[in-house]
Amino acid sequence: MGGRSLWLVLRRGGCLWGIRSEHVRLVTGCGEGYCVVVGDRSLVADEVLRVHLDLNVRPVGPIVRGLAPPGSAGFGVCEHGPLVVIDPQCPPAVLAAK
User: Fold this and answer.
1) What distance in Å separates the CA atoms of residue 78 and residue 21, rounded to the nearest whole number?
2) CA Rg, the chain, in Å?
3) Is residue 1 part of a domain?
4) Domain count for the chain
5) How far apart are the first and last CA of the chain?
6) Which of 5, 73, 95, 98 could form a disulfide with 87 if both were Cys (CB 3.0 to 4.6 A apart)?
7) Which are the contacts of 89, defined by CB distance < 8 A and separation ≥ 6?
8) Is 61 domain-assigned?
9) Using CA atoms, how far apart are residues 31 and 54, in angstroms rounded to an integer?
10) Cβ(33)–Cβ(44) under 8 Å?
């Protein structure tokens, strides 16, 4: 899951989230935050923090799967802190545009 790739790091609901930049089609300002278009879905973020190279990502293991938000593909750490990796096929509901 790691490897050489770019990751968009954003904040929503007090949590850090990351998604591979290759899945992001568009980022625009909307209202008080940002709209992030991933495939045919629009996600919302309070802040877009940066694009990060080579994020060290670990998959969600069986012990923490019950604690991870649905739509989580793993966990990572960047200079802003720990983050949840977004599954682009099924992003977490907290990121859904209303």
Assistant:
1) 15
2) 12
3) no
4) 1
5) 30
6) 73
7) 39
8) yes
9) 31
10) yes
| Residue 50: both structure tokens together | 């940066």
∠ CA(90), CA(26), CA(21), 5° rounding?
65
pLDDT in tens, 5-27: 899 999 999 999 999 999 999 99
Dig out the tokens for 9 from the structure. Answer: 């790091």
Q: Report, as an integer, the average pLDDT of 43-52.
A: 95
Q: Which residues are CB-neighbours of 15 under 8 A, at least 6 positions away? A: 83, 84, 94
Strand runs (DSSP E) across the chain, as ranges?
Answer: 6-12, 15-20, 24-30, 33-38, 41-45, 47-53, 56-58, 72-78, 81-86
The whole-angstrom separation of Cα 55 and Cα 40 is 25
Tally of CB atoms within 10 A around 21? 14
Report the predicted TM-score, pTM, of the whole model to 2 decimal places. 0.87
